[in-house]
Amino acid sequence: MTARPQRRPACLQCPSPAKIKRPKNGHALCIAHFLSTFETEVLQTMETSGLFSRGETIAIGASGGKDSTVLASVLSTLNTRHNLGLNLHLLSIDEGIVGYRDHSLATVQRNARQYGLPLTVLSYRELYGWTMDDVVATVGKKSNCTYCGVFRRQALDRGCEMLNISHVVTGHNADDMAETVLMNLLRGDLPRLARCTAITTRSSSSSSSSSDASATVRRSKPLKYAYQKEIVLYAHHRKLDYFTTECTYAPEAFRGSARDLVKALERVRPTAIMDILRSGEAFAGLLRPTDGNRTLVPPQKCAEKECTCNEEDSLGTCSSTSFASGEGAMHIHEAQLRNLHHHHHHHHTTETPSPSSPSPKNPTAKRKQQLLRSCTQCGYLTSQDLCQACVMLQSLNRSRPAVMVQIEHDG
Amino acid sequence: MTGPQPARPVPPCARCKCSPGTVTGRNDPLCSTCFISYARSKPIKRMDPFRVRNNPTNAPPPLLLLPFSFGVSSLTLLHILKEHMSSQRTRVGRTGYGLLVVWVDDSGISGDGPGSVRKKETFMGLESHFGGEGSGITFKSVQLEDIYTYSQPQGAPTSSAEGTNLEKLRVLISSLPSLSSKQDILTTLLTRLFIRLAIQHSSPAILFSHSTTRLAEKTLSETAKGRGYSVPWSTSDCTIPLPPSQFPHRKLQTIYPLRDLLKKELHTYLSLTPSLQPFHIPSSSSSSATPSPQSIIPISTAKDTSIDSLMHQYFSQMEQTYPSIVANVVKTIGRVPAPTHLVALAEVAAEVEQSVPNCAVCGFPIDIDEADVWEEEDRDVKKLSVGVLSELGVGVEELCGGCRRSLEGAKEGVGARWPL
């Protein structure tokens, strides 16, 4: 939108005056053409990466926020307009955050009616016996994002399994992707750097049927090239009904810093977001094994969209960093790196062995992290005896019975 | 709980345990002697390929090109290497390498005439201090606009109105749309000038004096400029992928001897070496970049900042609080491999006259395996017109994404020409 309306240029695609200057590329468009261009680009992203096949059932991870609302709206519009033959299903996770999730869930329920899509809601409480508010009351605000990320990721998988759906889409946008690329650079996380820009990742599935390859849930990000600003514009001009409040809990420190950096870069050069994505994809290409024999680790699951604090979360095989989030994460990471430096005095990073640099001494070492099995407690795919969620639940539950016992005694 | 703080005793040096640890090494208190030897050991390790024994007795030592800017990094590197060569000479009577110290005067573009005069004088002083007969160190200054002397004769048709090399360079830079683009293209020109000079002087390697902090900065700013594909080449010790059609059988290495030292450690080195201080001329950008204490990211308006200077400010701040995180960024990116199989392919392909394309502007190979979305992006004539490109003498297919971005929005019809 220009400052001088009298000199407003014409829309690139028709003679009407342009109303929108696209943040992504500076193109001037009228509202109708902005909306159709936005939709066409999502369709192109879907088509060029062969995201969906006809007749496929897709779960849309819906939070009621702008990204997932726009995703649901665009997918259902495209599905009808181009007769894509997709069966769309809204899947919402209720983390149990009073004042945030309860309101946004109401939005999702309206969305379901507006688009005529079936909706399933799963709550942390029914899955884990804990709401996020309970978790925060127990662990404080330091590592809540880590818990939430791990729980949500698994909750989405379980939801898909319940509904017998093997493909879930989330509303991650270009800004989120750029942020993750910079975050993984800052955190020195090479394996995640290698996979964080992929449009589709294959998640581990829960349950006993995980030995079946078809049981894995695919996660895709059809909005990966869509700017957050354009998503807001789209939602505004399509008059979509969405919930604007951010999660009340602050993001993890590395992500927070990366987010500030992306915002600052966007101010300096708006195309920077696309450029970071392009670089991120190039890194992924450079880190991809070229000999064709080795395969990458099955891509790790990433948590659902709205609380991006922790998707591609900090829980690597280096679990000592895992509970560090909030303000302290950078300090703790710094301290750990210092320790490494101290003890080894040679090159060291915190990352897990990367696919491109397997340990030359031990050829089996590179395979070690790929040995996935079922969690002994819940059956979710994991590289340890217990999956991350069960480890967390164990530590949470340890605090709970102690309280209960005391109440009994008092009574 | 705490009363007035008693004067804290100086802890002993973590290495020699006998002198007081008055300066901070990466994490520990060190005495100045131990700090200096720590700071020297890092770059000298990187100079391993140029040990005395690798150089045959009867051959003159290879001349390595050392870009010099009067900043703390290049000055420190020059000093450390001079000391290294002296110790080689003391031990075996000769050195494993010689140095060609090159200062590129960019005052024609920066407009800093008085600064240029001061630098010229200082450069002469530096030469008499470090150079001279038997030192193995030679000094050379060139103008940035000299890059136009390497113009390909088969380039765009030369128009008579082009003027001097300096005028050509000024037209080129002023045609660029933003501070980010200008700074990016100037850095590119500088790097390519060093490469040309190294080739011209038969130098086997260029020694860039980037500190850890500077490399972390560069990693993120190249990423933000869409240059991810060439980051392994532009931030790591490697063989530069010269287009084999143009430079057959020529191998040129880049070495970053200071990659394991933080900028603040180089400042400590300088402060402990009084003889060096008269030659230190801080660049205006580094002196103005006092990071704001409130926020790690300065609130600045888009117009007066470039991507490079934004990253510079970000990491200047980061280095103070999180030095190990900064170092880890550099180690991490060092593990992203350059697509060497492509370069090998290019060498073979050169023989059959069909090579993997190098970008006409930055000179690095172009990523040919990119997703379709980028091809679309690169065809957008609204942002970069055919007219601009033909004036520059650069083909549409000859640009990488990062260089394309820096040229987008360039002025047409001003007669800007690409020098190489």
Automatic annotation (TrEMBL), chain A:
It comes from Terfezia boudieri ATCC MYA-4762. Pfam families: ATP_bind_3, zn-ribbon_14. HAMAP family: CTU1 (MF_03053). The lineage of its organism: Eukaryota, Fungi, Dikarya, Ascomycota, Pezizomycotina. This is Cytoplasmic tRNA 2-thiolation protein 1. GO terms for molecular function: ATP binding; hydrolase activity; nucleotidyltransferase activity; tRNA binding. Residues 374-403 form the Cytoplasmic tRNA 2-thiolation protein 1 C-terminal domain. Its EC number is 2.7.7.-. It is an enzyme of class 2 (transferase). Belongs to the TtcA family. CTU1/NCS6/ATPBD3 subfamily.
TrEMBL record, chain B:
This is Cytoplasmic tRNA 2-thiolation protein 2. SUPFAM superfamilies: Adenine nucleotide alpha hydrolases-like. Plays a central role in 2-thiolation of mcm(5)S(2)U at tRNA wobble positions of tRNA(Lys), tRNA(Glu) and tRNA(Gln). May act by forming a heterodimer with NCS6 that ligates sulfur from thiocarboxylated URM1 onto the uridine of tRNAs at wobble position. Prior mcm(5) tRNA modification by the elongator complex is required for 2-thiolation. May also be involved in protein urmylation. The gene is NCS2. It comes from Terfezia boudieri ATCC MYA-4762. The keyword Amino-acid biosynthesis does not apply. It comes from the Eukaryota. Belongs to the CTU2/NCS2 family. The lineage of its organism: Eukaryota, Fungi, Dikarya, Ascomycota, Pezizomycotina. GO terms for cellular component: cytosol. Keywords: Cytoplasm, tRNA processing.
